[in-house]
Automatic annotation (TrEMBL):
<keyword id="KW-0684">Rhamnose metabolism</keyword>
<dbReference type="Pfam" id="PF06134">
    <property type="entry name" value="RhaA"/>
</dbReference>
<dbReference type="InterPro" id="IPR009308">
    <property type="entry name" value="Rhamnose_isomerase"/>
</dbReference>
<feature type="binding site">
    <location>
        <position position="264"/>
    </location>
    <ligand>
        <name>Mn(2+)</name>
    </ligand>
</feature>
<comment type="similarity">
    <text>Belongs to the rhamnose isomerase family.</text>
</comment>
<keyword id="KW-0963">Cytoplasm</keyword>
<dbReference type="GO" id="GO:0030145">
    <property type="term" value="F:manganese ion binding"/>
</dbReference>
<keyword id="KW-0479">Metal-binding</keyword>
<keyword id="KW-0464">Manganese</keyword>
<protein>
    <recommendedName>
        <fullName>L-rhamnose isomerase</fullName>
        <ecNumber>5.3.1.14</ecNumber>
    </recommendedName>
</protein>
<dbReference type="InterPro" id="IPR036237">
    <property type="entry name" value="Xyl_isomerase-like_sf"/>
</dbReference>
<keyword id="KW-0413">Isomerase</keyword>
<comment type="pathway">
    <text>Carbohydrate degradation; L-rhamnose degradation; glycerone phosphate from L-rhamnose: step 1/3.</text>
</comment>
<dbReference type="InterPro" id="IPR050337">
    <property type="entry name" value="L-rhamnose_isomerase"/>
</dbReference>
<dbReference type="GO" id="GO:0005737">
    <property type="term" value="C:cytoplasm"/>
</dbReference>
<dbReference type="GO" id="GO:0019324">
    <property type="term" value="P:L-lyxose metabolic process"/>
</dbReference>
<feature type="binding site">
    <location>
        <position position="296"/>
    </location>
    <ligand>
        <name>Mn(2+)</name>
    </ligand>
</feature>
Length: 429
């Protein structure tokens, strides 16, 4: 018996088990196929980008590890992404940061234009990949005092306002070209290491700057603006201007997409519990699915309870149309293509688990007050044969089943990544 036959047999048995609980497995797989995860470009090169300034990472972002093979050019990054996508079932998006343009010389952030992303747009069209975008408010001399859009200096603020306006135009062009809105996510690192005297003034400046950036209405069919909060960063331990409350209020009052990053809250605070609340008040939600570990908000996504809970909440709330799932992690201590494969496959496995849950039955038990059976069924769910359905999904999607994808990464590491010297770019220490 071949392995693929085994996968099919296991799937048939698993289907029987799920269907005995009233779950439609075929429908779950059809819905999973529609889920496009926005894969973050920055995992591929340790958030260095292509501005040619040696990529000193700043503003609270830090990458540790020195694994061989960091992508040093747009072509290398695209090649690495192509391998990653070939290991992940379904059609997924690419989340590009502004510092990943193809600049051919010094172009400051306030001067970037669509032309610098033409190569990415052509490549994305050729791959059937849709693009999302982000202004880059970090790793720049005008962010070196820790403040950008909320800087007390009006000249610096204007520079960053112009950057934000430029990125909206680029995102709109991407969205028009791909016939699907490009989500342009604003994460602004501004904050104080130590206790501020005025928490209010920088927040007033940030809101005013954002209002200027968003003053021009752009077609929602082309681009959607998102805003991302954070509790603290390295160097902004005491105060971050763009806190959760700030952006929740901003997104609601300006009808913007709210971005929740799973690593941006207190270590015991979870975003899964926030989804159903914020969805009552914001039009759409962007998630940065990540894994916080102590001080770091960006470990590779693993199949944690919280990951499962996030995807459960999206499915249970019937939010798949209104929640955009993006990833945000960067780890330079392991093969970077493997990091994408591990994190994205895990995110999809968790969506699948949510889609295979007998939600109606659980809700009926809850409504009837039978919390004993609700807990019992939830716990029994954990032993259901999710892996058999996942393997079948991978097989029928033409991507490696089980850990077979790792062999492809190893081959690529030997034949491509290990030949990259660190001279073209700077390896992170
Ligand atoms: C590079 C990303 O935009 C960045 O990680 C941001 O989304 C974030 O989460 C900062 O902590
Ligand atoms: Mn994030």
């Amino acid at each position: 018996m071949t392995n693929s036959t085994n996968t099919e047999k296991a799937f048939e048995l698993a289907t029987e088990q799920y269907e005995s609980l009233g779950v439609n497995v075929t429908r779950a797989l059809e819905r999973l196929r529609e889920v496009a995860i926005s894969v973050q470009c920055w995992q591929g090169d340790d958030v260095v980008g292509f501005e040619g300034n040696d990529g000193a990472l700043g503003n609270g972002l830090a990458v540790t590890g020195n694994y061989l093979g960091r992508a040093r050019t747009p072509d290398e990054l695209r090649s690495d992404l192509e391998l990653a996508y070939s290991l992940i079932p379904g059609n997924h998006r690419l989340n590009l940061h502004a510092l990943y343009g193809e600049f051919n010389g010094p172009v400051d952030r306030n001067e970037i234009g669509v032309e610098h992303f033409a190569g990415w747009m052509d490549w994305a069209a050729s791959q059937g990949v849709k693009l999302d975008f982000n202004p880059s408010y970090f790793s720049h001399e005008k962010a070196s005092d820790g403040f950008t859009l909320s800087n007390a200096d009006s000249g610096i603020r204007q520079f960053w306002i112009d950057h934000g306006i430029a990125t909206r135009k680029i995102a709109a062009a991407m969205g028009a070209a791909q016939g699907n809105p490009c989500i342009n996510n604003f994460w602004v690192p501004d904050g104080f290491k130590d206790t501020p005297a005025s928490r209010k003034a920088p927040r007033e400046r940030l809101a005013a700057s954002l209002d200027q950036i968003f003053a021009e209405a752009l077609p929602a069919a082309h681009t959607l603006d998102a805003v991302e909060c954070k509790l603290f960063g390295i160097g902004s331990e005491s105060y971050v201007v763009g806190s959760h409350e700030f952006y929740l209020g901003y997104a609601i009052s300006r009808n913007k997409v709210l971005c929740l990053d799973a690593g941006h809250f207190h270590p015991t605070e979870v975003i899964s519990d926030k989804i159903s609340s914020v969805m009552m008040y914001v039009p759409e939600l962007l998630l940065h699915v990540s894994r916080g570990v102590r001080w770091d908000s960006d470990h590779v996504v693993t199949y944690t309870d919280e990951l499962q809970a996030i995807m459960q909440e999206i499915v249970r709330g019937e939010f798949l149309e209104r929640v955009h799932i993006g990833l945000d992690f960067f780890d330079a201590s392991i093969n970077r293509v493997a990091a994408w494969a591990i994190g994205t496959r895990n995110a999809l496995k968790a969506v699948l688990a949510g889609l295979l849950e007998p939600t109606e039955q659980l809700e009926q038990l809850e409504q009837s007050g039978d919390y004993t059976a609700r807990l019992a069924l939830m716990e029994e769910q954990k032993m259901m044969p999710l892996g058999a359905v996942w393997d079948y999904y991978c097989q029928t999607s033409g991507v490696p089943v089980g850990a077979a994808w790792l062999e492809k990464v190893r081959e690529y590491e030997t034949s491509v990544q290990s030949l990259r010297s660190s001279e073209l770019g700077t390896a992170n220490a």
